[in-house]
Amino acid sequence: MQRGFTLIELVVAIAIAALLVGAIATNYARLQQAMEYRSVVREVLAGMRTARNEAQRSGRPVSFVVDLEQRSYGVSDHGFGRFPDSVDVRVTVASTEAFQRGRSAIRFLPQGGATGGSVDILRASSGEGVRLRVDWLLGHIEQEPVVR
């Protein structure tokens, strides 16, 4: 009796290993896109809340800015984050807050109100995502599902 593996057993083992590596690589890309999506939603929501709190604390208007051309977002006078390529973004703001070259803002006011608007963050692959909507009267920020 000989010990060891036959050529067929080795080929089958290598084929199974190749399938596993391929499956992991595909799932890794999806996992990374999902992590990027969740991260950008959290960061945009945190930025909006920061702008609202800072406006109330400082007694002056503070804007949350979205630049669609540069694919960036952030609180005025602070650093800006960037939208990853794995997400699509739509912005709806008051006409007074829509500026040139794809730059828009939602201005939070010291009394608690805002100019109102929404930022839609969508998964580029499926079109599903969330709308972060700012109420103009109270400045509340709500998160709701949205489909392209």
From TrEMBL:
It is found in: Cell inner membrane. Keywords: Cell inner membrane, Cell membrane, Membrane, Methylation, Transmembrane, Transmembrane helix. It is a single-pass membrane protein. Signal peptide: none annotated. PROSITE patterns: PROKAR_NTER_METHYL. The keyword Transmembrane applies. Residues 41-136 form the General secretion pathway GspH domain. One of its GO terms (cellular component) is plasma membrane. Coiled coil: none annotated. Its main location: membrane. GO terms for biological process: protein secretion by the type II secretion system. InterPro entries: N_methyl_site, Pilin-like, T2SS_GspH. It comes from the Bacteria. Belongs to the GSP H family. This is Type II secretion system protein H. It comes from Parazoarcus communis SWub3 = DSM 12120.
